[in-house]
Amino acid sequence: MKAALAERSADVRATWPPLPRRTRSRRTALTIRTPLSRRAATALTVGSLAVPFACWVVLSATGAVPATFLPAPGAVLSAGWEMARSGELAVDAWTTTRRVLEGFGLAVLVSVPLGILMGTFHAGQAAFEPVIGLLRYLPASAFIPLLIIWLGLGEPSKIAILFIGTVFFNTLMTADVVRGVPRALIDVSYTLGARRGEVLRKVVVPHALPGIIDAVRVNAAAAWNFVVVAELVNSTAGLGYRIVRAQRFLQTDKIFAVLVVIGVIGVTIDVALRLVRARVGRWAA
Amino acid sequence: MTLELVDVSMDYGLRGREKRALDGVNITVSPREFLCVVGASGSGKSTLLSLVAGLTTPTSGVITIDGRPITGPGPDRGLVFQTGSLYPWRTVERNVAFGLELLDLDAAERRRRVDWYLAETGLADVRRSLPRQLSGGQQQRAAIARALVCEPDVLLLDEPFGALDVQTKEDMQLLIRQIWRDTGTTVLMVTHDVEEAVFLGTRVVVLASDPGRVAADLRIPLAEDRTLATKRSPAFLELRASVEDLVRAQHRSGVAR
Ligand SMILES: Nc1ncnc2c1ncn2[C@@H]1O[C@H](COP(=O)(O)OP(=O)(O)O)[C@@H](O)[C@H]1O
Ligand SMILES: [Mg+2]
């Protein structure tokens, strides 16, 4: 019976037309997830920076765009040099950086323990997740007027903006990372005699640490955005304040110079956190 | 050390519907025994070990060690999973040392004990490696060493060689027999592999599926000294066949229903 079945199906198969063949796509630089040669990769990176820069040079040199709209690179450089020499750039940069350290630092101090709590205990999740999930959708910049009413025009309202803008995201991201700690690792630790606190300290936190640093790195970028927004509104120093001042006098070259400085500091922070992450997370590589 | 399961049943609540994973299980593990529990996938083997480990509580029934009921997990019952339960950020030696780091021991004493188990499991050369740098077999040996260094009354093994290739698996089977004889520990191992159960066990319990319950409980009258040649001996083959028949019968009755 089995043999008959095999025979019959073989018969039927003989009448089938051959399956159509597909032409195969050739390997190119755009084959999914294929490594690129080092030279090609470098060329692409350099190009992505050089092309916009060349456009900038051409547009401003030919006078196609007036200098008040788009200052020449040279003008930006000298404006930056001027600010650096007078010392105001250093003061502004430090004022802004300090605000980030204070506001975002506070947010990290609150969000990391809270996130660990939420990721570890169902009670923590039930108590905080809905509230924080809602709060994070309220735009921090919309709080600026309210915070000025509550806290005045000084430093506290700026620190508070940074805090509000980053604390909720960092909490939820930390909680997610902590929830990713494998159950088996926690179970096996109990069978090795670890108590609850020891499991938290010696297993959950070390496993989650690289992921937590990743979360901090992402949110540090957000913090850097919020601080400039906060300074645009009302301040007497800081990079955001410098932009507003320059705008009042149509000093576009100064605005550009400040933007470059903001970019450079931001990238520096990012690279530093990447290095820490690579060191702490060597085991995961 | 005597481990006793008396009328142990376990229900899982699945969206309101109860799922009975174990039903009235009675097993006694005597001191120095190597007890293998075989059953098809889903017959409740992992549930059984999790209950003995104290990670979950039975719906009904009691589990005792020397008459004392189990109230939670502890280092007197070491547990080894199929894969991936090493701490990935700790080196092999620090993985093995984990349980001892929790105790009030001086560094020299800790080191002496860790060294002994690293040697016993053949890991001395890779003691400073991270888990991801090890082969699957080495990872399981490290997990076994980590459990044993705490000197458990009973070593609980949940399909510890299930993810290994055939050759590595045989090496590991010989190793675990060796360790069992060297350390005098009691072993409770669950597996779906009948040959493995008969080769390793001094006793084999067959678990029926859905709900998991004891279908057979038989002594394995093979010599203490077992080698790969044992697997080809007529006595072994006969035992294996009879246990296979038992497992198959249980599986059929499960499918028929
Ligand atoms: N946490 C759980 N929640 C609900 N059902 C579960 C859970 N763990 C196991 N089960 C069910 O219990 C039965 C036995 O599972 P398990 O003990 O893992 O079997 P085995 O280890 O023999 O494969 C299976 O039907 C499984 O689906
Ligand atoms: Mg299982």
UniProtKB/TrEMBL annotation, chain A:
Compartments (UniProt record): Cell membrane
InterPro entries: MetI-like (IPR000515), MetI-like_sf (IPR035906)
Membrane topology: Multi-pass membrane protein
SUPFAM superfamilies, per database record: MetI-like
CDD domains noted in UniProt: TM_PBP2 (cd06261)
Record domain ABC transmembrane type-1: where: 93-277
Keyword terms of this UniProt record: Cell membrane, Membrane, Transmembrane, Transmembrane helix, Transport
Source organism, top-level taxon: Bacteria
Record flagged with keyword Flavoprotein: no
Transmembrane segments: 40-59, 104-122, 134-153, 159-178, 255-276
PANTHER family tied to this protein: ABC TRANSPORTER PERMEASE PROTEIN MJ0413-RELATED, ALKANE SULFONATE ABC TRANSPORTER-RELATED, MEMBRANE SUBUNIT
Similarity annotation: Belongs to the binding-protein-dependent transport system permease family.
Protein name: ABC transporter permease
Name of the coding gene: ssuC
UniProtKB/TrEMBL annotation, chain B:
Domain of life: Bacteria
GO MF annotations, alphabetized: ATP binding
Family matches, as Pfam families: ABC_tran
Keywords tagged on the record: ATP-binding, Nucleotide-binding, Transport
Domain ABC transporter residues, every copy: 3-234
PROSITE patterns linked to this entry: ABC_TRANSPORTER_1, ABC_TRANSPORTER_2
Gene3D superfamilies recorded: P-loop containing nucleotide triphosphate hydrolases
Name the UniProt record assigns to this protein: ABC transporter ATP-binding protein
The gene coding this protein: ssuB
